[in-house]
Amino acid sequence: MLTKTKTAFGQLLLNVSEKLRTLSERFGIEVTGLVNTTKSRVLIWDVIDGPYHRSEFQQSFLDENGIDEESEYMLVVKLEENGRVGQVNFWYETEEEVLAVKDYFRYNIEPLEVQE
User: For the whole prediction, is pTM greater than 0.85?
Assistant: First the structure.
């Protein structure tokens, strides 16, 4: 039972990591505190704030930032790239995805790597 749980949770984390990469490319997420945005190892270290539901934002903000209709929830995460750390907003389609990321950092200190 524990092995199946670890395997399922590992796959969920892999899916979340892939989703983070996809969303950052799709939305051209602005990362604060980073100078060089060339391809490199990108790590998510923690959830800083959130989740926030899209209803908490004005529609004009969502439109100006290119947030599509499928994106329902946002998390602010601590991100590292090339040894530099900043904050970035990641949008998710489901509450399940958001809670999986939050739960991961509730019980783990290891970062999630965003797969290129």
Answer: no
